[in-house]
Amino acid sequence: MVRYRVRGGNALRGTAFIQGAKNAVLPMIGAALLAAKGRTVLRNVPIIEDVRRAVELAQSVGAHVELHESERTLVIDASRLTSPILPAEIARRFRGSVLFTPALLHRLGEAVVEGVGGCNLGSRNLDFHYLGYKRLGAIVDESETVIHVKSSGLTGATLYLDTPSHTGTENLIMAAALASGTTVIENAALEPEVLDVIDMLTKMGAKISGGGTGFITVEGVTELHAVEHTVMPDRLDAGVFAMAAAITGGELNLVGTGLDLGVVRYKLEQMGVEFATQGAVLSVRCHNSPLKPINVITDTYPGFATDLQSPMMTVACFADGISYIHERIFDGRFALAGELNKMGADVRVKDNAATVHGHTPLKGTEVTAHDLRSGIALVLAGLAAEGETVIESGYLIDRGHAHLAERMRALGADIIREVP
Ligand SMILES: CC(=O)N[C@H]1[C@@H](OP(=O)(O)OP(=O)(O)OC[C@H]2O[C@@H](n3ccc(=O)[nH]c3=O)[C@H](O)[C@@H]2O)O[C@H](CO)[C@@H](O)[C@@H]1O
Ligand SMILES: C=C(OP(=O)(O)O)C(=O)O
């Protein structure tokens, strides 16, 4: 059982190195399995538990995968896939496992999904994925807990997503990339990670247009080849470091090419945090205490990312006044409130909205991470609380943030990762 131990009170200062994006590298590992020849090289790979699970999953279906941790590089040879089964014991440990289905369908004619994991955030349906595969001509048997998808060749079609699902869009693009004919995906996700995956697939030989417009057209091709690709920076990791500067009254330079925090930056600016873009470096500092309260409504890109909603709830605890947070993507993403309240916060939840009554002083105690982002939000709370905060289960934090304790310690934080 991994746990993080944080002693609050130190302002974070210095240069924070932002990792590669979890939500881009996972679909890229799935995409690498589409190439029947050669070796794919992925660079700027975040060394997180989800990547380790994805490596295990790719190996379990027969790919040869090397994770070179100090070089943050993955080398994937998928020329010989041997099993269509995504085994429950690996696949249930992360959400990205769902992104292996298109490659198995194309390469082996079937995919057996024994389970899909990921953060526990309420209902997390996969109906858009399976309906899409069916529209492309696959047979999907959902009658048992194990889902069986089969196809002897997919054919392009017009697909529609009720809401712009992130992994749903990636999966349907990958399924369409090697289908015969043209596929149109309406109401597709606009997230930058989806566009990065489209860039990689395009290098591999896929014919995809309309990325970022909500209407994606894919002209099927007969094969895709292995390429080298550098994973984009993780805007969620960057958001967390910006918030760490905000609540500790610190000053950080965020390094990671092309960082754009979008609405997260604007919201933090409204609270009194100062940003300056200096070429490739994004500087963030906060000398205004207390912060101003804020209204946040989560939405698909370019709205406020749901994955930063929990960290933002922690920041709101340090604002003077009532902040309002409305969660619109997931129906169960407020487990953090109870944990912050244990530390002395006053967060009140009603249905899919929360009000944060700040500023109450937070005191360190033992708290529970219910999911990845509530975990990192508790680390943030610990950085600014009085005394020691102990956060379990640290594994959930390690699912999405690489070398967190080392990176924060380098900035002056008093934080250790313990494996009892
Ligand atoms: C590995 C990965 O990239 N994970 C991200 C991805 O998750 P993920 O791709 O699972 O999230 P989706 O965008 O698919 O889900 C958003 C909402 O749509 C609903 N839905 C989705 C698909 C479907 O077939 N049917 C359906 O009803 C879900 O229940 C949820 O309420 O996007 C989320 C929303 O930005 C992020 O929080 C996750 O970090
Ligand atoms: C919800 C998240 O991840 P996943 O979809 O991988 O569970 C997240 O990164 O906050």
Automatic annotation (TrEMBL):
Keywords: Cell cycle, Cell division, Cell shape, Cell wall biogenesis/degradation, Cytoplasm, Peptidoglycan synthesis, Pyruvate, Transferase
Residues forming the catalytic site: C119
Catalytic activity reported: phosphoenolpyruvate + UDP-N-acetyl-alpha-D-glucosamine = UDP-N-acetyl-3-O-(1-carboxyvinyl)-alpha-D-glucosamine + phosphate
Subcellular localization: Cytoplasm
Binding site for UDP-N-acetyl-alpha-D-glucosamine: R95, D307, I329
Keyword field contains Hydrolase: no
Enzyme category, top tier: transferase
Pathway: Cell wall biogenesis; peptidoglycan biosynthesis
GO molecular function: UDP-N-acetylglucosamine 1-carboxyvinyltransferase activity
Occurrences of domain Enolpyruvate transferase (ranges): 6-407
Superkingdom to which the source organism belongs: Bacteria
Record-listed 2-(S-cysteinyl)pyruvic acid O-phosphothioketal modification sites: C119
UniProt: phosphoenolpyruvate binding residues: K22, N23
Family matches, as SUPFAM superfamilies: EPT/RTPC-like
Enzyme Commission no: 2.5.1.7
Task of the protein: Cell wall formation. Adds enolpyruvyl to UDP-N-acetylglucosamine.
Homology family: Belongs to the EPSP synthase family. MurA subfamily.
Protein name in the entry: UDP-N-acetylglucosamine 1-carboxyvinyltransferase
Organism: Nonomuraea mangrovi
